[in-house]
């Protein structure tokens, strides 16, 4: 297995724009989707797939994660881009996807919000928001 490669948010956007079978899977929690926002893929005619890697509030790993990928209609031939807050959970989710038979798994580097800046705020240094890609509040 080649491992899960990091891909920039801009390169992810480009892949989602060009490849009809490519999908973005947001593996954050329900609370993060509701209070922080989600990537908006309407411009490329898609919707982000929401499957938590860890279940809030216990933060236990979602034991049905691979099953949820399949139920979402994702296929082993599809390029799957995993995103979380900063890129750690999405890397683990990508590794689990590869182990479950989805070899084309990628990690969105910097995640949705990226690391904290000098003032302790996210969304400014790196990640989906910092790169100015579309997002919305739910």
TrEMBL record:
Residues 18-124 form the Rhodanese domain. InterPro entries: Rhodanese-like_dom, Rhodanese-like_dom_sf, STR4-like. Pfam families: Rhodanese. This is Rhodanese-like domain-containing protein. It comes from Paeniroseomonas aquatica. The lineage of its organism: Bacteria, Pseudomonadati, Pseudomonadota, Alphaproteobacteria, Acetobacterales.
């Amino acid at each position: 297995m080649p491992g899960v490669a990091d891909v920039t948010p801009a390169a992810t956007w480009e892949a989602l724009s060009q490849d009809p079978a490519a999908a973005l899977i947001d593996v954050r929690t329900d609370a993060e989707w509701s209070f922080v926002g989600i990537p908006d893929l309407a411009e490329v005619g898609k919707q982000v797939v929401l499957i938590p890697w860890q279940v809030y509030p216990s933060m236990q790993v979602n034991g049905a994660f691979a099953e949820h990928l399949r139920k979402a209609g994702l296929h082993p031939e599809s390029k799957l881009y995993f995103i979380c807050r900063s890129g750690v959970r999405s890397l683990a989710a990508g590794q689990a996807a590869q182990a479950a038979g989805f070899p084309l798994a990628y990690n969105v580097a910097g995640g949705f919000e990226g690391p904290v800046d000098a003032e302790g705020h996210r969304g400014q240094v790196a990640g989906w928001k910092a790169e100015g890609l579309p997002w919305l509040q739910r």
